[in-house]
């Protein structure tokens, strides 16, 4: 069983990791120095946390967020139900979607539909050119396209990392503290 001082240490480290992680989610361009100043965490530890998040592929890249409406693109969600849930049917459908342009996000879902596809498009013709090839596939039983208009929220939710994941990130620290 882990002693209370070790549990406190992991809890404090988890807090620090999540402070750094939250900062990066809110501003992926933040520097180690600025995160250290903002969170009051030692600069070398901030750098180590960022490095471990990258090594474990929790952070896989830095992305530019584009306001599609500003460049006059619209958003739609395409709900798709296949006539067969055989793995080959799902795989075939996924392969088709991967060849389409303008697919922003693609999800396999549970419920009344099998897939949810988020697309961006400039005009009705472009949306038609995205959805019609899908509608014509033999294994598509039902397809519904829903246009969406984003509503800006005052803040975006950020994800947190559990203490169990933090202990995996810092396995080397864990083995040295248990000796």
Plain-language structure description:
With 179 residues, this protein is α+β, with helices and mostly antiparallel strands. Helix content is 46%, strand content 17%. The protein has helices at 4-26, 32-39, 43-55, 87-98, 124-135, 163-169, 171-177; strands at residues 74-82, 103-108, 115-121, 140-148. A 4-stranded antiparallel β-sheet has the order 2-3-1-4, covered by helices on one side. A hairpin with a 6-residue loop joins strand 2 (103-108) and strand 3. Helix 2 (32-39) packs across helix 3 and helix 6 crosses helix 7 (171-177). The model has no long low-confidence stretch (mean pLDDT 85).
Describe the structure using short key phrases.
about 180 residues; alpha+beta; four-stranded antiparallel sheet
Provide a brief overview of the structure.
Helices cover 46% and strands 17% of the residues. It is an alpha+beta fold and 179 residues long.
Structural class: alpha+beta
Roughly what fraction of the amino acids lie in strands?
Answer: 15-25%
Extended strand count = 4
What percentage of residues falls in helices of 4 or more residues? 40-55%
Q: How confident overall, as mean pLDDT?
A: 85
Low-confidence stretches: none
Largest beta-sheet details: 4 strands, antiparallel
Task: Give the C-alpha Rg.
Answer: 22 Å
Distance between the termini: 14 Å
- SSE order, one letter for each helix or strand: HHHEHEEHEHH
The number of helical segments is 7
Basic shape = elongated
Order of the strands making up the biggest sheet: 2-3-1-4
């Amino acid at each position: 069983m882990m002693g209370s001082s070790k549990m406190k240490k992991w809890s404090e480290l988890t807090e620090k990791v999540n402070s750094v992680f939250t900062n990066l989610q809110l501003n992926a361009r933040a520097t180690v120095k600025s995160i250290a100043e903002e969170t009051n965490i030692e600069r070398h530890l901030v750098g180590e946390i960022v490095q471990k998040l990258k090594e474990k592929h929790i952070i896989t890249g830095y992305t530019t967020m584009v306001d599609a409406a500003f460049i006059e693109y619209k958003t739609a969600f395409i709900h798709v139900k296949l006539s067969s849930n055989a793995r080959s049917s799902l795989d075939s459908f996924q392969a088709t979607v991967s060849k389409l342009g303008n697919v922003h996000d693609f999800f396999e879902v549970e419920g009344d539909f099998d897939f949810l596809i988020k697309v961006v498009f400039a005009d009705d013709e472009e949306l038609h050119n995205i959805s019609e090839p899908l509608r014509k596939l033999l294994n598509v039983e039902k397809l519904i396209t829903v246009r969406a208009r984003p509503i800006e929220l005052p803040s975006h939710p950020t994800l947190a990392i559990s203490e169990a994941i933090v202990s995996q990130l810092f396995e080397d620290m864990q083995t040295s503290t248990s000796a």
